[in-house]
């Protein structure tokens, strides 16, 4: 699930707040798809870890693009709702 507070990390599978993700301007909601812990762990694994992450990132990006598309459609829909109601809907949406 991705919402305004945070997202699932596709690597460890845990939902975490955005503060637990590095910033990445091209990423969903301006953050990397993997949490800081997973990113750091992979970096420590060296070359093979980085290669594995690069492949994983490419696979993830295909998923991210689909999510971004759905996200954009959702945002457009929510603009028609009052602010408070929109926030409530947002929290319940599964991506
Ligand atoms: Zn993680």
Give the topology.
Elements (H helix, E strand, L loop, with lengths): L5 E3 L6 E3 L18 H9 L1 H33 L4 H10 L3
Antiparallel strand pairs: 1-2
Helix pairs in contact: 1-2
The chain binds zinc ion.
Structure description:
The structure is a single chain. The protein has one domain. A two-stranded antiparallel sheet has the order 1-2. α1 runs antiparallel to α2. It is built from three helices and two strands; from the N terminus they run ββααα. The relative contact order is 0.14. Helix content is 55%, strand content 6%. The structure holds zinc ion. The site of zinc ion has 8 residues, from α1.
Bound molecules: zinc ion
SSE arrangement, N to C: EEHHH
Global outline: elongated
Count of helical stretches: 3
Query: In total, how many domains does the architecture comprise?
Result: 1
User: What is the alpha-carbon Rg in Å?
Assistant: 15 Å
Record field, number of beta strands? 2
Characterize the biggest β-sheet.
2 strands, antiparallel
Average of per-residue pLDDT values: 79
User: Share of helix among residues?
Assistant: 40-55%
Reading side by side through the largest sheet, how are the strands ordered? 1-2
Strand content: 5-15%
Sheet/helix structural class: mainly alpha
Q: What separation lies between the terminal Cα atoms?
A: 5 Å
Low-confidence stretches: none
